Amino acid sequence: MPVEAQCLAPDVLAGKNLGEIAKLPIWQGNKKHTLSELFGIDGKTADKPEDLKIHINGDVRKVRRIGTGMSAGEIIIDGDVGTHLGEEMEGGKITVGANADSWAGAMIKGGTIEIKGNVGDYVGSAYRGTVKGMNGGTIIIHGNTGNELGCFMRKGLIKVYGSTAQFAGAHMAKGTLLIMGNSNGRAGAEMTGGKIIINGKVNEILPTFTIDSVKAKVKADGEEISGPFYLFVGDMTENGEGKLYVRRTSNPQLKAYEQYL
User: Fold this and answer.
1) Which of 46, 221, 240, 260 has the fewest C-beta atoms under 10 angstroms from its C-beta?
2) Can you list the domains of the chain with their CATH numbers?
């Protein structure tokens, strides 16, 4: 059964001794437990969140909402981790040594999340029913991601060393998506602003984007990346001014666009 673990955050554990931490409530399915019933607990505590480091040892792929709303401190997870990692995080750092499930960094406002493996859908995205996605901070993913990376993103940086599925940067307003691998299509759908940089191959450019120019280089949060890159602007269905950069040498199929420059 999935485990809801909002208590696994520096802001919650700071100022408590090991005995108090052991008694914190945690839900497994519809059953309420104490933290010590599901986890072995050891180490030293701290009075302030910024002085606290939580080290989670093992496979916690069924554990959700680790690091929810954290403002400072550090969480290190050695194995796989479940959904909603670091949701609405405001500061501090989370490092995952393996893979993460969907909704990692949902509506994050600050801090850094670094995931060494792959991640599911909706990284840094807004929850259904809201239009406020990632609003600050940094998410670094060394593997691949699923659909709707950075959906409704408003600020911050997401850097993906692998490839992404469809709709990366959908509804994006501000911020930067840097994708070192390939994009499986529909990048920037209905974006109004912000910047998407794709170093690998793209399946398509949406017809609601117009080609603007070819750039020799592009900057991503201060990092300069050599091109050349095609620069497309859109999404015109939203009167958008978003910038979609696509590496020219990786996408010879887009050469036909050059006649419009």
Assistant:
1) 260
2) 52-260 (2.160.20.60)
